[in-house]
Amino acid sequence: MKEIILAKYGEIILKGGNRPKFERMLIDNIKNALKNVADFKISIRQATVYVEEFDEDKTDIIVERMSKIFGLVSVTRAAVSEKTVEAIEETAFHYLGKDLEKPARFKVEAKRSDKTFPLNSLQLCIELGGWLDDKFPNIVCDVHNPEITVKVEVRDVAAYVYIDEKKVRGQGGMPIGSGSKATLLLSGGIDSPVAGHMISKRGVTVDAVNFFSFPYTSDRAKEKVISLAKILAQYTSKINLYIVPFTEIQLQIRDNCPEEHMTLIMRRFMMRITEKIARRNGSKALITGECVGQVASQTLSALDVTNAVIDMPVLQPLIGMDKIEVIRRAEEIGTYETSILPYEDCCTVFTPKHPTINPKRSSIERTESVLDIERLEEEALAGIEIIEVYPD
Amino acid sequence: MIYLDNAATTKPSQRAAEAMMMAVSNFGNPSSLHGLGLQTEKLINSARDNIANMLGVNSKNVYFTSGGTESNNLAIYGVANSLKRRGKRVITSTIEHPSVMESFKRLENDGYDVCYLGVDKDGIVNLDDLAGMLTEDTILVSIMHVNNETGVIQPIERISAMVREKSPYCIIHCDCVQSFGKIPVKPDKMGVDMVSISAHKIHGFKGTGALYTNYARITPLIRGGEQQNEIRPGTENVGGILAFSAAVSECEIDIEKMREKRNLMRDLLCEKLDNVKVNGSCEHNSGSVLNVSFIGIKAEILLHSLERHEIYVSTGSACSSHKPQPSHVLLAMGVEQKAVDGAIRISFSQNTTLDEIRTAAEIIAGEVSVIRRYM
Asked: pTM of the prediction?
């Protein structure tokens, strides 16, 4: 008996003329995610991705990796059977035996896309259901409220049998590469990795920028950001991480600007520097993890002041979400545990006691004008360290 | 590079490294019956003799372990379990290493009557309080010799005299990981029954330590073969043990010389900076650790600033610096919060030179001034 992996894709199906292009991207992304895992064969037929001929020890990790690829809505392992009723019954008996030995409510769902198969879907359900019921005395048929749904798909070259409940939900979205590139401001916190995940899910390639304030933050804080980028790269395959030295800018702001404006002026520097990086790497937008009203620098007036310094769309996918929703997403994508490690990131060291919450563009422009903005930015850009981050 | 984090670990010496290499050619299992095994066994025995000699004890009472943490665990559980019928009272202090503190916490959960002896502002355990804690059925007292965060030497001889007077069945354990090889550690003279020591604090390798115990009926932590009287079974870490012995042979015990280093650093820092507070007694100090607070800064920022100059120090003890929690030792001494936040530990080895200390003091003073401007 041979086991393969079937993955279904969603939104790509709706894309008329571009569909073959997106399918190719999807295949390339899957190949890339699995290249260090196993040897395998991959193909697309009837809106389904088939992965086969891999070492069976690797099945779990292949399923796990594929469940993180944007564009796929489900990933399931299935047994391959010849297209005869007897063969399907034999395959189901051997493949599902363990699951059907214990008492459970079950039903069979069949789908016959090969219309030359002698039984129609309903007939196949009845036939296989009756046969399984005879073979496994502990299971009872319950089509309304089953615990185990045995699925049979009779497709072009073979039939496939699996348990629907074991299907792994995919990420949905569009394949990476289908939606040009954007640059993410990645701190060590909870929000920004989630923001990066949400935009890359729409097929956008993501690079990330981190502002590093050594010695006010430690190398451990930098390692934490690299770990977060690594987790994101499980979905996006690769992230170029730009580490920007930021200490000098913070010290200059601290020395020369009013304390209550410190965070905003700092964020304006971050936006300007990120825009410059984004233009160099071909990005079409910036991504931030901002959310209205979460902290003083995220009021609408504050967002106006920080976004005013650049001429590029700023994508803020978390803008209307509550913290609790963001945390749930962070847990789902696997960044939460890393985000809550205690090493301080550069935002928390230089924080004013009473930040301005209703700033005006004009007053911030005035207070920051004492700084040699151009020189500070150039120096920061010259000191950038670029790290190519791949998933482990 | 100026390495001033010797209380966390030390650089292995050349001779320790050469001794470690002997385990490559002498690879026989010391428990094997053939000549190859015997050869290794002899090497281990002579290493044990050497270490026992330094302690002034009989080498049959020295058991090799994986390090200070295991030695402390073995001593504490081993005694508590074996003497549980004699009594439930056990005593330790509030400034012990986590491997001692956590072992006592577990004894507490197991139903033992655990007393925690506090310290004064100099970091020395309170002997009056100890008198009140000692009972006839006290079975274990474990107090460290030199504190890992402050370098303060505890009055072990007086403690053991008090214990002997009041608690006839009591076993006294002393964590000597920070004192062994730096100041004299002689269990008989100190009046203690058990001593924990570690190789990597004295220029040996990580992963090797020893427990001296004159009380042989302790319950083992791990079960296995018949090695080391079954008290610590498992094939010996031959390379680590040979290196440990080589490192012991190189130890120069000269407390005055160490204190000179500590005092120089202290005096230079106090001279160059205001609002500097030295934590822990200078009079009763091993000289190997200077714990100093720069009021108004966060110690970790200073640590990273110094790292840029290749000067390495620590905040609190290395084991707890993965999570930002204030030092339990300084808190126990009643050091106020802002001094705890600004405390760094500078620790010296016998190889640290006075010139290194002068250079480091200059740079530390400069970095503290910069950080104070911005914090």
From this structure: 0.82
CA A253/CA A248 separation, integer angstroms: 9
Find all residues with CB under 8 Å of B282, minimum gap 6, and list them. Answer: B262, B263, B266
* Choice between A237 and B112, residue whose per-residue pLDDT is larger: B112
Which residue from B minimizes the CA distance to A349?
B375
Return the SS3 of B62.
strand
Question: Does residue A163 share a domain with residue A185?
Answer: no
Q: Which of A212, A213, A216 to mutate to test the interface with B (most CBs of B within 10 A)?
A: A216
3-class secondary-structure state, position A183: strand
Q: Report the number of distinct structural domains present in chain B.
A: 2
Are A190 and A146 in a shared domain? no
pLDDT single digits (tens) B131-169: 999 999 999 999 999 999 999 999 999 999 999 999 999
Indicate whether B116 and B214 sit together in one domain: yes
| CA atoms within a 13 Å half-sphere pointing along the CA-CB vector of B164 | 10
Q: Which of A214, A217, A251 sits opposite B374 (nearest CB)?
A: A251
With an 8 Å Cβ cutoff, is A342 touching chain B? yes
Q: Pick from A331, A334, A317, A316: which is nearest to A233 by CA?
A: A334
| Residue A353 sits at the chain B interface (C-beta within 8 Å) | no
Shortest distance, CA A328 to any CA of chain B (angstroms): 24
Partner A, chain B 242-301, Cβ-Cβ below 8 Å: 300-301
Indicate yes or no: CB of A342 within 8 angstroms of CB of B305: no
Tell whether A327 is covered by a domain: yes
Catalytic positions of B: 319
B264: domain CATH number is 3.90.1150.10
Of B302, B308, B323, the CB nearest to A342: B323
Q: Which two tokens stand for residue A122?
A: 């309903």
- Residue A135 and residue A47 share a domain: yes
Query: Inter-chain contact B304–A251, Cβ cutoff 8 Å?
Result: no
ipTM for the complex shown: 0.70
* CA distances (Å), origin B137, targets A201, B72, B87, B130: 67, 22, 5, 14
Residue B171 β-bridge partners: B140
Domain check: are A83 and A207 in the same one? Answer: no
Interchain pair A215, B301: CB under 8 A: yes
Q: Is A15 on the interface with B (CB under 8 A)?
A: no
Q: What does DSSP say about strands A139-141 and A104-112: parallel, antiparallel, or unpaired?
A: parallel
Q: How far apart are CA A276 and CA A244, in angstroms?
A: 12
Asked if A181 contacts A281 with a C-beta cutoff of 8 angstroms, the reply is yes
Q: Which residues of A touch B308 (CB under 8 A)?
A: 214-215
Q: Which residue of B has its CA nearest to A253?
A: B374
Is B322 found in the same domain as B209?
A: no
Name the residue among A333, A58, A3 with its Cα closest to residue A169.
A333
Domain that holds residue A301: 181-389
Question: How many domains does one find in chain A?
Answer: 2
Q: Which residue of B has its CA nearest to A350?
A: B375
Instruction: Using the 3D structure, point to which of B209, B227, B250 is the last residue of a domain.
Output: B250
Q: Are residues B243 and B363 in the same domain?
A: no
Q: What residues 280-299 of chain A have any CB closer than 8 A to a CB of chain B?
A: none
pLDDT tens-digit profile, chain A (392 residues): 899 999 999 899 888 889 999 999 999 999 999 988 889 999 998 889 999 999 989 999 999 999 999 999 999 999 999 999 999 999 999 999 889 999 999 999 999 999 999 999 999 999 999 999 999 999 999 999 999 999 999 998 999 999 999 999 999 999 999 999 999 999 989 999 999 999 999 999 999 999 999 888 888 889 999 999 999 999 998 999 999 999 999 999 989 999 899 999 999 999 999 999 999 999 999 999 999 988 888 899 999 999 999 999 999 999 999 999 999 999 999 999 999 887 765 555 677 888 888 899 999 999 999 999 999 999 999 999 999 999 87
The domain in which residue B129 lies consists of 14-250
> Which of B307, B323, B324 lies closest to A215 in CB terms?
B307
* Residue that finishes a domain, picked among B230, B250, B270: B250
B242 and B314 together in one domain: no
Same-domain status, B188 and B333: no
Burial track A201-225 (b if 16+ CB lie within 10 A, e otherwise):
bbbbbbbbbbbbbbbbbbebbbebb
